[in-house]
Amino acid sequence: MFGLLGAAAGILIAALLRQPGVLLYDWIATRAAARRQAVLRKRQALIVEAAARDAAKAKRGRPPVTQAG
């Protein structure tokens, strides 16, 4: 009895995960896409922040520019 219920639940879950357009599939796919986008935005922000920090550091450490002559 429990074996049949387990098999039926497994088949139902597998169908929900494999068929595009089914709510469970769409929900998982959109969550994964949102998570990927958040990671990419965070990575881009870190790159921009590091570049700005390096530029400020280089600007502070550079002697004033003078022209010869």
How widely separated are the two ends? 97 Å
Helix content: over 70%
> How many distinct beta strands?
0
> Mind summarizing the main beta sheet?
none
Count the helices. How many? 2
Element-level helix/strand string: HH
Strand content: under 5%
Q: What's the average pLDDT?
A: 83
The gyration radius over C-alpha positions equals 27 Å
Shape estimate: rod-shaped
Q: Give the low-confidence spans.
A: none
**Secondary-structure-derived class:** mainly alpha
Please give a structural write-up.
The protein is mainly α. 81% of the residues lie in helices and 0% in strands. The chain is built from two helices and no strands. The chain has helices at 2-18, 23-61. The longest helix is centred in the middle third of the chain and has 39 residues, at 23-61. It is rod-shaped.
Short account of what is shown:
The chain is mainly α. 81% of the residues lie in helices and 0% in strands.
Topology, please?
Elements: H1 2-18, H2 23-61
Task: Name some characteristics of this structure.
mainly alpha; rod-shaped; 69 residues
